[in-house]
Amino acid sequence: MLEEALEAPAVVERQLAADADAYRAIGADLRAQPPQSMLTVARGSSDHAAHFLAYLVMARLGRLVTSLPMSLVTLYATRLQCEGLVAMALSQSGRSPDLIAPIEFAATHGARTIAWVNEIDSPLGRAAQWALDLRAGQERSVAATKSYIAQLTAGARLVAAWQDDPTLGAALMRLPQALSLAARADWSALVETLQGAQRMLVIGRGLGLAIAMEAALKLKETCGIHAEAFSGAEVRHGPMALIEPGYPVLIFAPRGPAQAGLLALAQDLRDRGAQVLLAAPPGTPGSPLALQPAPDEDLEPITAIQSFYPAVEALAWARGADPDRPPHLAKVTSTR
């Protein structure tokens, strides 16, 4: 897991050096024929990356994006209305039936389909109109790291191409260097604070919610901590009742419109006795976890999760767990 997490900057550099014509073509197609509706199709970590993509599309382009419950197609045989639809699938293996079936259905019924896969000649890659290679190389660890970061980057590439935005495009080209710095960030405070934790909250908002969801999953699967992710806007709607003295909370507060509210929430949680681990830009008061600045603030969740991965891997070992052999899990999950 650690080796692959540290490979992510090189993976992103490799991805950004390839497939420029394909991204330009998709961007031009989306501008020429704006979608009437959009779906993301993904599971697990890939679904968290899809959440980031969806939020970026909605925030920058104003197009609503829905996450598809795959059982609608595979179990309920729902005949989705596909006219004007763009369906976007994300998968490391490209082999899970509940991803392949909706893309095949959408493509057959007139939708435009895009798939990001780490195995381009996979069933999912073959089913999509446009198949884009994540360029992550073989990922052996059960816990996805470099493929997730590659998916986040690919989603931002699509948005940059769709908007024909040279500023975001240029920022993406500088992302590998920022990731290299983020991978070396000192997040030892996370290991020290969570070594004995059994349950916790992980909080983000806006573009940062996707990495809060991913971090909570990694804390569960590698460390055995019952970590639940929430938007900072939702914590006061029930989860706040869990807070008691010493209760651990990890808050991701990268730059952007959501940051001020997250910093205020962090202070409120401290006032209630919570043990707050705040991940924020350097110099932020009360932040033991420094976030490496990204070339564009919309990309800062990507550098944030890059810093988190080595820390959670170290946390697993500190808790006596083997992050490369999480119980009851396999690399490819085949569900319908």
Describe the structure.
This protein is α/β, with parallel strands linked by helices. It has helices spanning 2-16, 20-32, 44-61, 71-74, 97-108, 123-127, 146-163, 166-173, 175-183, 188-194, 209-223, 259-271, 300-318; strands at 37-41, 66-67, 85-91, 112-117, 130-133, 199-204, 226-231, 248-252, 275-280, 289-290. The protein folds into two domains: 2-173, Rossmann fold, CATH 3.40.50.10490; 182-318, Rossmann fold (3-Layer(aba) Sandwich), CATH 3.40.50.10490. Strand 8, helix 12 (259-271) and strand 9 (275-280) form a beta-alpha-beta unit. Helix 3 packs parallel to helix 7.
Quick structural gist:
46% of the residues lie in helices and 15% in strands. It has 336 residues and is an alpha/beta fold.
**Can you tell me the CATH superfamily of the largest domain?**
Glucose-6-phosphate isomerase like protein, domain 1
Q: Looking at the chains present, what oligomeric state does this protein adopt? A: single chain
CATH topology of the largest domain: Rossmann fold
Shape annotation: globular
Low-confidence stretches: none
Question: What's the level 1 CATH class of the largest domain?
Answer: Alpha Beta
Beta-strand percentage? 5-15%
Largest sheet: 5 strands, parallel
* Rg value: 19 Å
Spatial strand sequence of the major β-sheet = 2-1-3-4-5
Helix coverage percent: 40-55%
Number of domains: 2
